[in-house]
Every structure is written in structure tokens, then in C-alpha cells.
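Still learning. Any example?
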Amino acid sequence: MEKKNTKGITLIALIITIIVLLILAGVTIAALTGENGVLTKSNTAKEETEEKNAEEKLQLVLGELVTDKLTDNTYNETDYINKKLTDNEMTPIGNNIVYVDGWQFEIDRSKPKIVQGLGRGELEEQIKIVANSTVTSDYVSGTVIIEIIYEGEIETIKLNGEEITVPQKQNGKYAVEQQITNNGNYSVIAKDKNGKFNIASTQVTDITEDMEIWNKEDMIAFRKKVNDEGRTFETKKAIVMADINLKGSDTDQWVPINEFKGTFEGNYHTINDLYVKSNSYQNLGFFTTISEKTTIQNVILDNVTIENTYESGTIQSYAGAIAGISYGTINNCGVNGGNIIAKKTVNGDDNYVRVGGILGRGINNKISNCYNKANVKGEMTNVLGNNTIVGGIVGTFSGGTLSNCYNQGKVDAIGYAIFTGGIASDISSKSSNETEVKNCYNVGEIGKNNSGNIIYSAGLITRNGFSAINYVATVTNCYCTTDTEYSFYYWNGSTPNATSIQGRIEANILKGYANNLGSAFESDTTGINNGYPILKWQLEK
């Protein structure tokens, strides 16, 4: 019987076995040492723990330095801090870098605090970094400009610890521009693939920040920042922190604030003795014009004197305690007393004065929870064929919402054609339901001595839809107690049509029946409005 050749088969099996073992060994090594291998992950976790421990160790020392800064009169940001670091076995390198157990951190000595971790890399002075900054002309934002020169390849760039995209290298340089919105120290770190790095910084101080206003001097400084320096305060706040008296002589009048685009927070403090008498501004008030980006809130004005005598051909004049014109938002503002007047004596087409207790004119804006107790008057002398438009809250209102407001001030006018309304003179919409007036009342006097060839007076609103191209606005839940013949004097197109809605008679019936006006009103149980319904927010304030 012939024997089989088993030696060849055994050799082949052995080779296959060895190959399989090698493959399995390779898989095992990869599983241990690859990018996602067990050993690699373990080493990464270990390094993260070590770095975290080093960071906490440094943070503890910096916390002690914060206390020392307040209690030790020998404290300084150089030698004192360096000694504290070295006493705790940490090594300061240069001005802002500290080595802790082999890890590097950037610190801010002025705070003191950690700015960012820099890893284990080696400081490389051949990486040249130049960091500068600029701010926009309105001081709202800025740009950090970074230029990096290095023969090698930069792998990462961080700005204040945040990684930013590394641009392509051009002419041996990396150029980066990063937008910023806050002041502060901006630190740049650039690293190559071997972890070698360098660091540079630039200080930004000119971006506008929130401003507290404690007195007249602060208020003037705020105005100068806006009017003279061009700071719009967009996205920022000016915050009134105390009652302020602006009283000055006739040569020390208040100059209105112009081009403000932030939030003016009055905190319900009273600004007394606002005195503005000028022929230099078309729009006159505490502000000239309120932009669509502006919010004025919780501002109380007392003893207001506004007199606009602007004369410039066919240009219209506007006056209001808060502003001449507003495209923005006005909430919870009040005028406790004074006189607001706009005058014109120049003949010419389209000559108007528009005056209101809060605003001369509101366009696509929002007015809510506001009141006026000042006298409001418009004068157009020696001017034929033109209009004097006066309202207790606003002269003309078109676009937006006028809600939860009341007027107690006298409304008066002189001119060729005069229009006086307890809340507003003219309201209109350019499209259906664009403008709404709701939850408002007037108990102020409508002047009986109005002098003019054409006189239209109403307890609430004189004209709704005041030209043929305008729609009427929506008016709901409003009343007046005046003895004018009409509460509303509607002007639909060019045809006057006197209509009484919720007028004098209805107002008398309303005593004790605030619910007839909806949920915004409350019965006058305190007697602040002669028993007539008041707005709920009046009790809340």
C-alpha cells in the first residue's frame, strides 16, 4: 500500500497557522495601539486627567492671588505673582505663560485667571505672531487682525481658547481676521504639527459697553459718546441709576441725543427739569429721532420745557418730551408736567408742526404703558393753508401699536388748519390692520380757544385715515371725558365725517364699569381718576 506525503501537508498547515497568528497579532496590536486603540485611549485619558489636575492646581493658586490682591498691600502683578507661582512649584515663562507639572497655561495677571491651556508643546520663537485690532466707526464691534510668519506648517490657531480655521499660507504668511463684539485682551496661540507654539495678544478697549448714569455729569458724558464720538450703543444699554436733575441756565440747555440705537433704561427714576429750546433741530425732545433698533423704557420726565422753533422753508417740525420722531419702541414712559410746544412762522407748501406729549410723530413703532401730564401746543402763525397737528400722547401715528396709554395734559393749537386730539391727532395705515390704537383714555382738556380758520377737535383722535391713499387704523377699548363735541373726527379720504364712538356720554356711564372696556382696565377704587376706569398698570406702579 502506497504512503501519503503528510510532510508537505503539515508544512502548509504550519505556514497557514503562522500567517493567521500574525494577522491576529496585527489586529491585536492595532486594537491596542491604533488611533482608537485601547492603549491609545488609555494614554489620552491619562493625559487629560493630568492636564485637568495641573489646571486645578494652578486655579487654586490664582484663587489665592485674588484674595491677596484685596488684602495684601505689597501685591503686584509681576514679582508678587511670580513668587507665588514658584513657591507652589510652578514656573512662569515670559509674561503670561506658566508651566505646571509639564503642562503650559496662559494666564491673565490683571484678574488673575486662566485664559487657556496650551498643552505640552515647546515654546517656539521662530513662529512670529503679530496681533492687532480695529473697531468699527460706530464702536459697536471690532476685528482682531492676525499675521503669522513661520517656515514650517501651522496646524492650529486659537483665539482666547477658541479654535479658528487655519487659512492657506500665502507668501510665507498666514493672515486671519476675526470679528469681535466685546472689549478685552485677545490672546492668539499658533501651533505646528509637533506641538511647538508661540503666543501673542492685543488689547481691545474702544467697543461701546453698557453705561451706568448716576448724575447730570454722567448723562452729559453719555450724550457726548453718542453725539460727538458716534457711539450708537447698538445692542448695548444706557442705564439710569438715580434721580437726575438737568436744570441749567438759558445758556446751558439740554442738547438732544441723536442716532442712539441701543436700550435706554430709566429704571423709573425721574429726570427733572429737561429744558430744550431750539431752532436747530427739526425733531426735538430728550432724543431727536428714535431708530427702529432703539428701545426707550421706564423713563419718567418731570417739569419738561420743549420749544421747537425750527424754521426751514417747507420742512416740517416735530416735538415730544421723549423724541420728535420714533421708529422704535417706547415702553413705560411718563411726563409728569411741563410745556411742549412747536412753532412755525414760515409760509410754504407742506409746512406742518406735529406735537405730542410723548412723541411728535410715530412711524412703524410701538408705544405702550405711557402717560402725559404736560401741556401740549402747536403754533403756526402767518402760515396759510398748512396744518397744526397736536395730540396728548403723539401728534401723528402711522404703523405699529399705541396701547395702554393715557393723557391728562391740555392739548391746544393755533394755526390756519388745526387738528387736536386727546390721544393723537392723526392716525392711519398704509395697509389693512397695520396700525392699532387700543386701551387708551384721555381726561385732559382740549383747548376751547383754539385759533384757526379750520378747526377739528376730538376727545381721542381727530383724523383716522387722514388722506385718500391711507387706510383707517383699528381703534378699540378707548374712552375720553372731555366736553368736545366728538371723541373721534374721522376723515375718510377728502370728505370729513364727524362720528362719535365711546364719547362723552359713554364715558359718564363707564364710572364703576371698567369691565366694559376689557381686561386692560380696572375700576378707579383709589380715586386717582375721578372714578373713571384706569389702566391696571397704574395700580401696579
In short: Residues 211-509 form a domain with the Pectate Lyase C-like fold (CATH 2.160.20). DSSP finds six helices and 47 strands in the chain.
